[in-house]
Amino acid sequence: MISSSEYGSHSWELLVTVDHQHEEVQKEFLLRVTGDLHIGGLMLKLVEQIKISQDWSDYAFWWEQKNCWLLKTHWTLDKCGVQADAKLFFTTQHKMLRLRLPNMKTVRLKVSFSSVVFRAVSDICKILNIRRSEELSLLKQSEDALKKKKKKDKNSKEPVTEDILNLCNSPVSSGLSGSPGLYSKTMTPIYDPISGTPASSTITWFSDSPLTEQNCSILAFSHPNCSPETLAEMYQPRTLADKAKLNAGWLDSSRSLMEQGILEDDQLLLRFKYYTFFDLNPKYDAVRINQIYEQARWAILLEEIDCTEEEMLIFAALQAYHVSKLSLSSEAQDFTCESEVDEVEAALSNLEVTLEGGNTSNILEDITDIPKLADNLRLVRPRKLSLKAIKPYWFVFKDTSVSYFKNKESAQGQPIEKLNLKGCEVVPDVNVAAKKFGIKLLIPVADGMNEVYLRCDNENQYARWMAACVLASKGKTMADSSYHPEVHKILSFLKMKNWTMSPQAASDPESIDMKPECFVSLRYTKKYKSKQLAAHILEAHQNVSQMPLVEAKLRFIQAWQSLPEFGLSYYIVRFKGSKKDDVLGVSYNRLIRIDIATGDPITTWRFSNMKQWNVNWEIRQVAIEFDQNVSIAFTCLSADCKIIHEYIGGYIFLSTRSKDQNETLDEDLFHKLTGGQE
């Protein structure tokens, strides 16, 4: 019998379940506690009762009914709201998780289930040696993709054994603040910028990291493509609505894995969520570059992003190059035979190979004199009831506007029309083989988008005008330092498209050992026979065969960035006052309202014009205010509205990054911009 004085007037019994592996020891404990007992004291009381000698430092209380962790050990039970009906689970904070990377490889590692996802992804990226973790996040696979996988497993006669890379012995996985693997805060070059292999001087670092030579090879290099049959069995979105489903599963960055229903050993996708690849440098980013390349490659193969046949062949040629050069060659994976290069010379020659277009020109612009373009172009205006009217005019491009005149002589007078390109959509309309160099402009007007086409005569003219249009759409002029790199990038992409059939390639389509069906989407395997495809790919291959490995990957990423749909994440929404559903495209610098039936853009809103955005959590409605008293509001039908809110805030957060900052991120600012104060 226990006396009433021992009970105390305010004590009660609390049931705690302990997650441990000792079968002979009970798992449920009834503790007598009072409301002023703090969480740390409860842990001590529990561990004393368990009587198992082990390290309990990674354990914490999980409150299942409230779906939350009790991590503030100085808080009392009263302050936490814990009462007699509460059931607490004493479990480890770090648990095993399977992550499917962009290259479709699965890694298994220990991840914090109690940290917010933003911090958990940062730890994962340190293990995998991927810089700029803020660009990535965790994604639940879409239900349609899971259904297709289950169907495939059901039809498979042999049991499916997934090849999993185990990184569970990593320092970060163990809950310790471990070594950063190959991640160098001193920014010493750790990869060869040409081949992407670890630099010989840093090979000894691998011993402290879960990224052994073999593991680094799996993450930093491309491997043979899957068979066409495997490709056919994978989920491929057919409509905008299907594409919207792909983006519904992003986890909330401000909450932990456990709070979002993720269980130990579940599988999630690690993906680049934000398409702003900052400070991409081959000296430090071999894994990051390869994973971006792989995400781009699969997006094209599975038709998650549309491209023309000409572009598809370029992508196929670059892939064929990788497979033939890397996977079939043991030399590229020889880590130890790296020739010693003078560090200063290497630093000068590879100072900045970025996606801004390789070796950027360092010409200092005269900021007082904004350049202008003036040339003869053809104007095309689509007409609903007749053929397109194509007329030549004298065009002048200045600041962010295009004016056109009847001829050069009349350019001193009033223009026929002046088009302000700020906030417009710029879409390439190019077929190099047919000598077609067009620029499609979708200019915002009161009732939607005004469609105008400009036709150029040649590649150089097109590159200059296209670059000017792209910058003007972002509110920048040709005086901006990014103008010349943009021209260079466009010309290099056109050069890749401009191939000629060499007699050798034509006569010997087997000169590269490949299955051409592995490098293109299913649409083109149905359209062409295998030998025809091989011949077409080899034609395109002539222009890329001399590229170093890392440059070829960067060119692939650059070509992907040039596609009109690049960086758009789709959601099905219902705008306030509208009677039908629309698709909302979220990009790094704008929102686009798209007609769900036709896929045509209706209106574009730029983040640069945005004054504020918020969420009405009661009716789950996102409201955004722009300049000039423009405001929109919508509810999200294909996903939680928090996902779109986080996307907008995330892109604005990423726009605050600068190269002179150190590698640490302002996590509080991220949560302030993306949290929505729910």
Automatic annotation (TrEMBL):
Source organism, top-level taxon: Eukaryota
Keyword Acyltransferase: no
GO molecular function, a single term: integrin binding
Pfam families reported in the protein's UniProt record: FERM_M, Kindlin_2_N
Family: Belongs to the kindlin family.
GO CC aspect terms: cell projection; focal adhesion
Any one GO biological process: integrin-mediated signaling pathway
SUPFAM superfamilies xrefs: PH domain-like, Second domain of FERM
InterPro entries xrefs: Band_41_domain, FERM_2, FERM_central, FERM_CS, Kindlin/fermitin, Kindlin_2_N, PH-like_dom_sf, PH_domain
Domain PH stretches: 378-474
Keywords for the protein's UniProt record, in alphabetical order: Cell adhesion, Cell junction, Cell projection
Protein name (database record): FERM1 protein
Subcellular localization, as worded in the UniProt entry: Cell junction; Cell projection
Signal peptide: none
